[in-house]
């Protein structure tokens, strides 16, 4: 399979300095992204889900080359992102675009919608005059902001949250990129407009053959949008596979916990699954030792979990699980510290 | 901008400040229309108290003080504006670079800024003017070069906040270079505090010019309020009006500028605007 985007053991460690501990020769290193490998094919939507602080957004910035990895490599369309010079990066941004989480912050409050969308088209594609204007109007009406002539004169504060995010999407898609990295694109929107924005994104994907890297913490959104997905925890991928398969058969204790924490319409169903809810807070990503990242909250914790970071194990073709004991857990032969009520 | 104008005009002290400043500036510009005397013209009786012939009296050489008062304002206005322009250009550029790039660039610029801000301002100005000569240009340059550190700190802080907003990332992904991002994307969003700081810089520059002139370090050929005060020292008991009027002019001009600065701050800052209305 020819991948559009490929990540090999990508790491992003932030050196936070040592504070007092530096006196003893110890620095605090935050492992925001810690050895993530994944690949996205052309026209595909790959979902990434996880709690806040699991490194999803850092990963998005790395892929968009707004930040550089401290280890591993990112390959887009055959070129290594780490080896690009300034002009190649500019060219890369014709192929990769991003939709940001907070639409208010991602539109310059001092610029009209028209200027916001036209500037990249002029700079990147060299459009001017009437062709530029037509392209801008087309981009605006393509995201259902009509009449487009009216919208291009507005400032961001004159738009609703959903309209702002449509402008952000229009700006990203106007360049006809191959990959759009969407970092929680509907999280800050009202429930009522989420569905419409998601439908719009699916439409645009079908029309222009876009690939999406779709980051979300909402499993329902993950299920609707993505064909394959990875579940992240503290900078590492815990489980990855086709979305339908993850929803049908999840093996990793964290995936199980995350999925059972999702809101369920039937309260009796909640009672049935309560036994699997995770306890405690997300552990710290500071100086993690070689061990399973999830061990402190895992009901199936064993000595090996404290001594060795689990590698991704193939449970099925394309379905990987980063857990030492997923087979035993799946077979029901592992002892859990939390009693499952049935 | 109409929202800004309305907010500003609803604030009485801000309006009073603007009136004071514009009245004094207009008087100095329109000086030839407001008096028949030239500021250095001799001829009247010396040390006349304020009265019908000479509105503010005369000085020790019989020169009309009203004329000096009007023409003297020109020096203050010119020094204030030009010095503030110099310091704003330096301060904004350095602050923008420092805040946007961060890292070692930030370190270098900030250490430089700190060096300039720990220099005792008046001492440095007095020594420089004493060595290089007390011409108008020298006074303006010295004041301009001494007043930029607060602007740099302010702009740096604004840029450090704004650069992490995602519209900056979006601009990078639109293929824009750092200069475009600094001046076209970030700077327009940092303008309100810069405007306020510029007004306060004008006020500080005016005061500094007056101080230097009062100490006899201003341009001796250029009538200014500070120079008038300097001359008035010797006749303080004999002719107090020689000190009162220029002193009043300086105080009112500074007061007006500061009120304007406050007014701009409140009108440009939506949160303060709400509080002022309560």
Task: Provide the descriptors you would attach to this structure in a database record.
heterodimer; A: 342 residues; alpha/beta; Rossmann fold; 8-stranded mixed sheet; 4-stranded antiparallel sheet; globular; B: 278 residues; mainly alpha; MetI-like fold; elongated
Question: What does this protein look like?
Answer:
The complex is a heterodimer of chains A (342) and B (278). By secondary structure, chain A is an alpha/beta fold. Chain A has one domain (5-18, 27-331): Rossmann fold (3-Layer(aba) Sandwich). Helix content of chain A is 35%, strand content 21%. Chain A is built from 14 helices and twelve strands. In chain A, the strands form two sheets. Chain A has an eight-stranded mixed beta sheet. In chain A, strand 4 and strand 5 form a beta hairpin. By secondary structure, chain B is mainly α. The longest helix of chain B has 37 residues, at 65-101. Chain B is elongated. Classes of the chains: A alpha/beta (342), B mainly alpha (278).
